[in-house]
Amino acid sequence: MNPGTDIFEQYLELIASTPEIDDSLINNHIKQLKESEKYLPMGMTFLFITNSSNKKYEYITKNVEYCTHIKRDEIYSGGFDFIFSRIHPHDLDDWHEVTGAIIEEIIKLPLDKKQKCNFQFNYRIKNGYGDYINILEGQIPIAFNKDEIPYLFLSQVTVLGNEIETSPKGVLMLLNNEGEYEKFFEILPNPKAKNNFNLTKRELQILEVINKGLTSREVADNLHISKETVDKHRKNIIKKMGVNNTVAAINLLKNQNPD
């Protein structure tokens, strides 16, 4: 299974047990979105409110039908699973890898930074005519559970057309003191990440940074994790790959995936 899928599914499991869904908050955001919809021009962008706790969309602006030729009622009734079923099969694993990595980074942030984050990712989805179109989706967390994990998002989707085939990638941005977004984290799935050793995305990231000649402390600083976590991952990598050290692990991966 794709490691990103594991992270994303674990996130959904955590959120599914959230008991304190704030209906008044959801209704307030829906009211605001309905009001803004009056002034939203008919174009290739639509807005919606995502509720990860029940894998549903609380509200979707009517532009979605103009942009995608998919009926709103189908999305409402089908929820996340309906959308997943329409993502291009070549993009699905990368979609999970991108969103899983971004969610992992968001969960590690303190609450004040979580409230200032905005993440974007792209993928291809099948429209109502059966054609795949490029999608750019941006999400802003607007509600958190007692563990400070976001479960409600205000989302904006722009249809980019289908003239150029794009590969999924994602970026996490944080609002600075000047009111501008700064890039905090970026992920572009690497085809070489497909390996025969069941290495996780984090383990592959660690090997990539180690290959630059950095120490465990420097790797930890680079990936915003503790040195103890890096050392634990190094031990897991060595065990999974049946080698004596991470240098041998890197060489083995290079031999498996020659340029």
UniProtKB/TrEMBL annotation:
Keywords: DNA-binding, Transcription, Transcription regulation. The keyword Transmembrane does not apply. Coiled coil: none annotated. Gene3D superfamilies: PAS domain (3.30.450.20), Winged helix-like DNA-binding domain superfamily/Winged helix DNA-binding domain (1.10.10.10). Signal peptide: none annotated. The keyword Oxidoreductase does not apply. GO terms for molecular function: DNA binding. Pfam families: GerE. SMART domains: HTH_LUXR (SM00421). GO terms for biological process: regulation of DNA-templated transcription. It comes from the Bacteria. Residues 192-257 form the HTH luxR-type domain. This is HTH luxR-type domain-containing protein.
